Amino acid sequence: MALNIGFIGLGSLGEGLCNSLVKAGFPVTVTDLNPACAQKLLAAGAAWADDVAGVCRGADVVITVLPSPAISRKVVEGPGGVFENLRAGGVWIEMSTTDFEDLQRLQAAATERGIAVLECPVTGGVHLANSGQITVLVGGDEAVFQRVEPLLAAMGGQIIYMGKLGNASVVKVVTNMLAFIHLVAAGEAMMVPAKYGVDPDATYRAIRASSGNSFVHETESQLILSGSYNVKFNMDLACKDLGLVNGIAEKLGVPLELGSMTQQIFRRARGLFGSQAQSPEVVRMLEQACGLELRAPGYPTELVAE
Known about the structure:
The protein is α/β, with parallel strands linked by helices. The protein contains 14 helices and 9 strands. It folds into 2 domains: about 160 residues, NAD(P)-binding Rossmann-like Domain (Rossmann fold, 3-Layer(aba) Sandwich), CATH 3.40.50.720; about 120 residues, N-(1-d-carboxylethyl)-l-norvaline Dehydrogenase, domain 2 (Orthogonal Bundle).
């Protein structure tokens, strides 16, 4: 019997993940503060609920994809939240990028109500969520993971079980930190040849074929060269994630020289360009400092999974 799914949070990432579930034939009920975000999903066969209680009614599994730990706490344990409305025996899957200690606290509260908890943050980019190819990192009880694995497989390509709750959240923010470091590095690497007079297209292709290549260069550098920067991930989210990983490192006594420097670079970019600016716009600071935009014809304005 197919699991009945409630889905809360239909931003760029959540909509793509939810769409994969709907396409796979799962019965899904959705809600979001902005009903307009649900229109494509409703047309594809999802049901709408006006609130969290409606999403939880009849659900076996409730999935949250929300922009911050504070919002997730409110939706899950606040009045009228998931814990008040999801039946005992149900499963809450947190797919947001969140604080692992807070998630462990929430797990204890959920357990008291007979609700199982999994953390399933994703990595790889919004464009891979739209195609069902994104990587899903899973933390929590392995028996619960096995119970819901079919719906995770519908949303993701690689599904990697990380162990106990908290493990996946820690690794997730580390992957984001790496992506942001690579983004700053890719901008610097393309700017030096551009100032020397090398065609940015030739530089892009040379780096892609070199030992200095990265996933970020292959994807987000294209959005810089097109001038769109639109990776569907804003400065607020980038600064939140860098804050999470640097906070974890401080508690564990791990010195993050590149991680902390990158956090400051992104904070400065957010101050200059605004909280809703796209994360690749961090490279705009370098472009402005050098008086040269990194542009080449023929590059896409958005990423699409192949």
